[in-house]
């Protein structure tokens, strides 16, 4: 069908410490491009980032992160050395920046339990805790043309964000034990 749009790839699990090393260019190639020209800048607050990390630590899931990796010169800039181009974050910039900040000790993780928010820090976790919490995320490496990356980005990011008033309503409900 002409209306179909499939993103080829196989999800891969990456542990957070390895993911951060890859993002920063300390493993197999140059630092990743976390902010390609079509992405918005970093918009999550420290609080949003800490609550996202807390969500993951307490067993929550997150959407797949999509990464453009040039597997041939077909989708790379003309005349570029496609193998050495940085991996481009197509979707997941905010989550990746939160993961990096947590691993580097710049933010903690806010976890809700016992009717209150509690803060946890990566550096205070034992090796066993880090392993048992499975600090990893699913990423999918793709090799799409720029046109297809832009179409994909628009498909993923055309929702309507919640207003603070809408979120405050739910926060108030939570204070009242969900009543």
If you had to describe this structure to a student in words, what would you say it looks like?
It is a single chain. With 179 residues, the chain is an alpha+beta fold. It is 34% helix and 16% strand. It contains 6 helices and 6 strands; from the N terminus they run βααββαββαβαα. It has helices at residues 16-23, 46-57, 93-103, 127-132, 146-156, 164-175, and strands at residues 12-15, 65-68, 88-91, 109-113, 116-120, 136-142. The strands form 2 sheets. Strands 1-6-2-3 form a 4-stranded mixed beta sheet, with helices on both faces. It has a two-stranded antiparallel sheet with strand order 4-5. α1 crosses α3. It is globular and about 60 Å long.
Largest sheet descriptor = 4 strands, mixed
Structure classification: alpha+beta
Strand order of the largest sheet: 1-6-2-3
Q: Bin the helical content.
A: 25-40%
Percent of sequence in beta strands: 15-25%
Name the helix and strand elements from N-terminus to C-terminus, one letter apiece. EHHEEHEEHEHH
Which spans of ≥5 residues are poorly predicted at pLDDT below 50?
A: none
Termini distance? 47 Å
Radius of gyration: 18 Å
Question: How many strands in all?
Answer: 6
Arithmetic mean of pLDDT: 87
Number of helices: 6
Sum up the overall morphology in one term: globular
